[in-house]
Design goal:
This protein has one helix and eleven strands. The chain is mainly beta and 130 residues long. Strands 2, 4, 5, 6, 9, 10 and 11 form a seven-stranded mixed beta sheet that branches. It has a four-stranded antiparallel beta sheet with strand order 1-3-8-7, with no helix packed on it.
Length: 130
């Protein structure tokens, strides 16, 4: 089955950390740019961070620069999002998506519905609260 599966979400206190994983099955993730997106209740979908397939380019949204780090382990067919110094405003459903043809800036800034990506996951909830 061709799919992306996110994991690693949960409840964390402000200032804490979480690492999200986006694992691909049934297709080689190394051929795809991968992005992390989030959507909080009542808010627009937001591009958090995107990583290219081959040239190492990375994009971070302004709200997460310096706190979040995206990385990929192509041997494990997985992309990670390390989230540090979490804030209550980071609370959202986080989902990952993969596109064969795009740039990281376009992928992260021109957000579109999940089903318009080549592949997308179902999301994982992140809640930051004391």
């Amino acid at each position: 089955q061709l799919q992306l599966v996110e994991s690693g979400g949960g409840l964390v206190q402000p200032g804490g950390s979480l690492r999200l994983s986006c694992a691909a099955s049934g297709f080689p993730l190394d051929l795809y740019a991968v992005g992390w997106f989030r959507q909080a209740p009542g808010k627009a979908r937001e591009g958090v961070s995107c990583i290219s397939s081959s040239d190492g380019r990375i994009y971070y949204g302004d709200s997460v620069k310096g706190r979040f780090t995206i990385s990929r382990d192509d041997a494990k067919n997985t992309v990670y999002l390390q989230m540090n110094s979490l804030k209550p405003e980071d609370t959202a459903v986080y989902y990952c998506a993969a596109d064969r043809v795009t740039t990281v800036r376009v992928m992260c800034t021109m957000t579109r519905p999940p089903n318009e990506h080549d592949y997308w996951g179902q999301g994982t909830q992140v809640a930051v609260s004391s």
